[in-house]
Design goal:
It is a single chain. The protein is an alpha/beta fold and about 325 residues long. The protein has 11 helices and 13 strands. About 35% of the residues lie in helices and about 25% in strands. The longest helix is centred in the middle third of the chain and has 15 residues. The chain binds S-adenosylmethionine (SAM).
């Protein structure tokens, strides 16, 4: 098997080096158009030091290159240059998911990442400025959320439950669902005094513990953006199954079409491959009606995300 060099010794290159390291894959070094010397990064509790090679010194028989450059134009230029040297270009996914079912491997990777890397995120996003992205009065999320009947509401991929405070008093019964036991346990403690909250650690693609036609609403924020399309479709079909007639669901999902190979690991801000049109198509095939849909900016990226309100009419 060929050894790996990462082209791009910036933020994205270091992110890739750490991901590979987590999978037990040691990279040989970096290449970079502008930088020379060594790159240092944390991994597995220790520090790694890797050299930046000159591309012309890379032996095409021994190495494959993963390009870690966010800008599409620059990416294409580098890809052309690397191929001119006869060096094979491979993706981060080909290397970390090799021999595995990509959908399952990505699902597990997203979940593991949230255990390993996201403690800071979960603390930070409790702040009111982060919550206001969803719950500020002029936010589209908030406006569409008003259309949900909260008699029995499911919050999918609830994390540590930061949204609950915003709708708790309007809901009669709340079911918090997340793939991670750690997050469900956290919520169980956080809301231990509150009888109306139930907890469900699921498998990452279905809601099989919930009865058909038993819920009035479902929503998910800042999570489905990372999911594989096949899992999104499973969740849409499950949403159709559990919603009562007239029930509605609100999804914050990805609108990232930068390239069809993109996954959580390589996508901008962890956005997986999805578009507003594809989501509408999947909802339609799950026998849900798309009621409203808006493409939205995320972290300064124009229309990277989308929010879609669907109904079981
Ligand atoms: C970025 S966090 C957001 C949590 C919460 N929605 C919030 O806004 O605070 C993403 C959440 O999705 C959960 N998750 C990841 N993959 C999942 C899957 N396939 N099914 C259900 N939950 C998942 C993670 O455990 C994590 O809690």
């Amino acid at each position: 098997m060929k050894k790996i060099i990462i082209y791009g010794a910036g933020k994205k290159g270091i992110k890739y080096a750490r991901i590979l390291c987590d999978y037990g894959i040691e990279i040989s070094g970096f290449c970079d158009t502008y930088k020379t010397g060594n790159v240092y990064f944390e991994c597995g509790g220790g520090q790694k030091e890797k050299l930046i090679f000159d591309l012309k010194d890379v032996d095409c028989n021994k190495y494959t290159i993963i390009i870690a450059i966010a800008d599409n134009k620059q990416y294409e230029e580098v890809e052309r240059k690397v191929k001119e040297y006869g060096i094979e270009v491979s993706s981060i996914e080909e290397n970390i998911f090799e021999g595995k079912d990509t959908v399952e491997a990505n699902r597990n990777y997203v979940a593991e990442y949230h255990v390993r890397e996201m403690d800071n995120y979960f603390e930070l996003v409790e702040r009111s400025d982060y919550l206001n992205v969803f719950w500020g009065e002029d936010s589209l999320f908030y406006q569409m959320f008003q259309e949900l009947n909260l008699t029995k509401v499911v919050e999918l991929a609830c994390g540590r439950g930061r949204h609950v405070q915003k709708y708790f008093s309007d809901a009669q019964s709340i079911i918090l669902v997340d793939i991670l036991e750690k997050n469900i346990d956290y919520c169980r403690q956080r809301f231990s005094e509150m009888d109306k909250v139930q907890y469900y650690q699921n498998n990452g693609y279905d809601l099989s513990l919930l009865k058909s036609e038993s819920c009035t609403a479902l929503f998910t924020y800042d999570a489905m953006v990372h999911f594989e399309m096949m899992d999104v479709f499973q969740y849409l079909k499950e949403t159709k199954r559990i919603l009562v007639k007239g029930g509605k669901a609100l999804f914050h999902h990805s609108n990232n079409t930068e390239n069809y190979k993109v996954t959580f690991s390589s996508g901008k801000h962890g956005r997986n491959y999805m578009s507003s049109q594809l989501f509408a198509y999947l909802a339609n095939r799950a026998d849900l009606t798309v009621l409203k849909q808006y493409e939205i900016d995320w972290a300064g990226e124009e229309k990277l995300d989308c929010i879609t309100l669907v109904g079981n009419l």
